[in-house]
Amino acid sequence: MGRPGYLTLPIFSVLAAIGYVYYTTVFVAVAGWLGLATAAGVANAAAFTALAAACLATYAVAVCRDPGRVPPAFLPDVEDAETPVHEVKRKGGDLRYCQKCGHYKPPRAHHCRVCKRCVLKMDHHCIWINNCVGHENYKIFLVFVLYAVTASFYSMILIIGSVMHSAPKDEQSGSDSSKTSIIICGVILCPLTLALTFLLGWHIYLILQNKTTIEYHEGVRAMWLAEKGGDLYHHPYDLGVYENLISVLGRSIFCWFCPVSNNTGNGLRFRASYDLTSSKPAM
Hints:
Blueprint: H1 9-33, H2 39-64, E1 97-98, E2 103-104, E3 110-112, E4 117-119, E5 124-126, E6 131-133, H3 138-166, H4 175-208, H5 213-228, H6 241-249, H7 273-279
Antiparallel strand pairs: 1-2, 3-4, 5-6
Helix pairs in contact: 1-2, 1-3, 1-4, 2-3, 3-4
């Protein structure tokens, strides 16, 4: 049930990339373009420092926070009227039971082969945080990606501004090392920004439909089977855009982008579209 050590090569790579991009952006790009003694230079350096600190803080929480473990004593109550959805095995139709962990799986829970445990509302295992992304740390992971995308674009703007400012000048003193740092930082930032932007867009798409990455891939197959049988597939946890958002980000819109995990529920039961249907008065 234990996790491997926190400091892995991917984590070290992320920390090294953050440190290098921060150093180059503040002490090379901003210092060379605006200067760290000017109001504009101090303001931009302070703003980027705050973003970098937010990235590091949320990243550390995403790495260290437990994604949510299934209680060993969990037992699904098939007669509970408040739990209209009971996920079953594809073959046999039995309630899902994890042979490796020795307990039943709640809805949306999955066993992680890397962490060797069942994770509540598991989205995926991320090697870059050496942790699963699940019910308890999904929002933190999402906020980290949001901060990282914002910081990446901000850094690119400052670096491009610095390059355009220094291009017409013919400065030889110290220019070679500065140019090398800028080039290396650009090589890191371009693919990183593209990948993070795609990742953020992907998870926004999933949140709007109240799906995890695993459920998306399972839903593609379920949709194909439903269409093959002449039926329509509907994701059981899709509550509508607003309800889907608050189920992950929390009910207070002012806390949606705060690095706190205020998602609803305990990860053992989730509201389903059947709840909305059953709550409507009969005509």
